[in-house]
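Subject: Sanity check before I submit

Could someone independently write out the C-alpha cells for this chain? I want to compare against mine line by line before I put it in a report. The sequence has 349 residues.
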Amino acid sequence: MNWISNYVRPKINSLFSRREVPENLWTKCSECGTMLFHRELADNLMVCTNCDHHMAITPRERFASLFDGGVYTEVKVPAPVTDPLHFKDQKRYPDRMKAAQKSTGEEEAMLVAEGEIGRTPIVAAAQDFSFMGGSMGMYVGNAIIAAAQRAVKLKRPLVLFSAAGGARMQEGILSLMQMPRTTVAVQMLKEAGLPYIVVLTHPTTGGVTASYAMLGDVHIAEPNALICFAGPRVIEQTIREKLPEGFQRAEYLLDHGMLDRVTHRSQMRAELITLTRMLTGLPPEVKGDLPPPSIGPDAETAPELPAAVENAEPAKAGAKTAGDAAAAKPVTAKSAKPAADAKDKGTAK
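---
Independent answer below. Compare away.
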C-alpha cells in the first residue's frame, strides 16, 4: 500500500478541488440585472421581486398556478403531418423539432387542458415561447380547434394564453392557413354563446396577433407585454420616424383602446375567475372550501344569534331554551330589548 498515493494525494485533491455547483440555482433578471434564487422566483410565478418584470413561464407552470389545486386534464390534440414541405435551412426541420422537444420536454408549442378555477369549469390553452418561439404551425392550429371543440362540447368558457413570434416559417403557407382555421374555431364559440378570453403575454406578435389572439370577448395582458403585428424596429425603419415611448406595449395599447385590462400575474387567477363566472351567469366566487350559508326558512342550521338575543327571555310559553324559543318564533334584537326591560321592572317591584 502506497501511503502517499492512496491517502495524501486524495486528501490534497479534496481540499483544492472545485466544488460542482448547479448552474440553475440563480436567474438573472433581464430588466434590472438582479440575481434571483430559483425557489424564490418560482414562488413568485417567475416575476422579478426587485423590478416586477414578468419573465417567461411554461404552460405547465402557468396551469399549476391557475387551476384549483394545480389539477387539470390534458386535452388530446391531433398530430399533423411531420415536415410537410421537407424544409431545410441551417438544419432540417425534423432536427429542429427534436432539439426543441428535448430542451422543453413538450411535444409542441401549445398545451390544452381542462379543469376548474374557483370551482368554475373551463378549457384553457397556452403557448410555450421556449418551443421555437411559440411559432404557429399546423399543430398550434389543431390545438386551438381541439380546445374550441372541447369547450363547445362541455359548454365551458375558453381561456387562451398567447405567446408567439408569429407563424412558423418552416411550414410556409400551411402555417399561414392556421389564421383562418383558428378564426373559424373562435366563431364556433361565438355561435355557441360561450366566452372566449385571451390573455396576451410577452411577446405576442405576427400572425398570432392578426388572428385568434385579438378575437376574444375580453382581452387581458400582462404588464409591459409586447403586442403587435410588425415589431417597433421594423416600423421605425419603414417610416423613418421615432416611435413614442412604450409603443406597442400593454399599457400603451390599454390607453388606446385595444385592451380591456392589464393585470399582474399574481392577480390573473382571481381576475379570470371573476370574468368567467360573470360571463357565464354564475354567482360570485365563494371564498374558502365551504358552500355559501343557506338563508331562509328551509335552512338546515340557523345562523348564530347575537349575544343579546341568546340572553333574552323565551318568546313562547313552554319553550325551555333560547334555541327552542328561536325555533318557535323568530327573535330579533328589537323584540328582545322590551322583554329585557319588562323583566327589569318586575325585579324592581
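---
OP: Matches mine. For the report I'm noting this point. Residues 303-333 form one domain.
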